[in-house]
Amino acid sequence: MPKRVLQGTVVSDANDKTVVVRVERRFTHPVMKKTVRRSKKYHAHDEANVAKVGQVVWIEECAPISKNKRWTLVQDASAPSA
User: Fold this and answer.
1) Number of domains observed in the structure of the chain
2) Is there a contact between 54 and 21 (Cβ–Cβ < 8 Å)?
3) In sequence order, which residues have a C-beta less than 8 Å from that of residue 15 and are 6 or more positions away?
4) Which of 10, 21, 27, 30 shows its CA 20 to 30 Å from the CA of 51?
5) Domain residues for 22?
6) In angstroms, rounded to a whole number, what is the distance separating the alpha carbons of residues 62 and 34?
7) What confidence category does residue 1 fall into, taking pLDDT thresholds of 50, 70 and 90?
8) Measured between alpha carbons, how far is residue 7 from residues 29, 32, 33 in Å?
């Protein structure tokens, strides 16, 4: 089964080797038929402490690293892929 990859915005980089990423999803409300935005925060492992607040990044599912961290930083979304 492939690992999930999500795109989100860094909202906190205060912890060492950890970033908090807000991932937003959009869906149509089943009754109101309006587009609704919902967001969720994920703790992601950032080994090199490269991500800064406001950056758009990709995170990937991984094995548990700590109590809250189950995601790891893949790369900065604005950086060109190699």
Assistant:
1) 1
2) no
3) none
4) 27
5) 5-76
6) 34
7) confident
8) 22, 27, 25
pLDDT value of position 29: 97
Give the CATH number of the domain where residue 71 resides: 2.40.50.140
Please report, as a single letter, which amino acid is at residue 44: A
Please give the structure tokens belonging to residue 10. Answer: 């860094």
**Tokens for 72?**
């790891």
By C-alpha distance, which of 1, 19, 25 is closest to 57? 19
In this prediction, residue 75 has a pLDDT band, given cuts at 50, 70 and 90, of confident
CA–CA dist 69, 21 (Å, integer): 11
Q: Categorise residue 31: left if φ over 0, alpha if ψ from -120 to 50, beta otherwise.
A: alpha
> Exposed, middle or buried, 10 (CB in 10 Å: 0-12/13-18/19+)?
buried
70 membership: H or E segment, kind and range:
none
